[in-house]
Amino acid sequence: MPPTTPPKALLFDIGGVCVVSPFQAILDYEVANRIPVGWINFSISRAAPSGAWQRIERGECILDNEFFATFKAELENSSLWREYWNKLPENQGETVPPPPQINAKQLFWNMMRISRTPDPYMYAALKALRASGKFVLGALSNTIAFPPGIRDELGVPFEAGLLHAPDSPHANDSTVIADQFDTFISSAHVGLRKPDPKIYELAVREMDKESRRRGLGDVNVGDVLFLDDIGSNLKGARAVGMRTLKVDLGKTEAAVRELERATGMKLLEEVQEKARL
């Protein structure tokens, strides 16, 4: 980010930013099942905009057997698999094998389980920012609406809330991640998903309302700093005029250091203190 005036509003993605990335569960699944790394993300992204994953994140379908059957079929698409296999340098001249068989339910629920864990760096930063009262804090997440009583692939009822470790300084915090924000926009509940320009515009309107309510003045699109771990989502935010900060997988501490520079605040003192104990 180029040097600029501090933002008035901070807009956070959830998965891969405030909580452990579901991409980690995808990577773990690929490694454990000897699937070329990157295939699952490739197949999901190439199914856009009308693939099962995109539709579930817009709230256009529900988590049922039909969804999982469609999701599995897309993850095993033979023509896409052939394209992906042939573009890998190590496979040049090799016969294309059948596409890998994907346990779509297991993969999905592993993604959901891993993303219940707060990222220690970003979560601590979020709490420090909230306590300061200096910024409007928003969340903008491509999310999934879980039907009441939904069970995972093992038949266990799934709880969508955060899992705070018993020894965490946040152990007594709310398990509802939305409680840490002034505004919270869930794709599945508004029928839009990133990188649709309309969902960023909605986020700006909501944060502007909150800022005015608190007597902090108006918030325009250029006053917003948006944090996400996916390049296309950041590109979409920049296209409407937002500032952006990329959060790389496994490098949230570095992202928080950038956030410190952008806000002029020390955000990791609590985490550093715990590490010294």
From TrEMBL:
<dbReference type="Pfam" id="PF00702">
    <property type="entry name" value="Hydrolase"/>
</dbReference>
<dbReference type="InterPro" id="IPR023214">
    <property type="entry name" value="HAD_sf"/>
</dbReference>
<dbReference type="InterPro" id="IPR036412">
    <property type="entry name" value="HAD-like_sf"/>
</dbReference>
<dbReference type="InterPro" id="IPR023198">
    <property type="entry name" value="PGP-like_dom2"/>
</dbReference>
<dbReference type="InterPro" id="IPR052898">
    <property type="entry name" value="ACAD10-like"/>
</dbReference>
<protein>
    <submittedName>
        <fullName>HAD-like protein</fullName>
    </submittedName>
</protein>
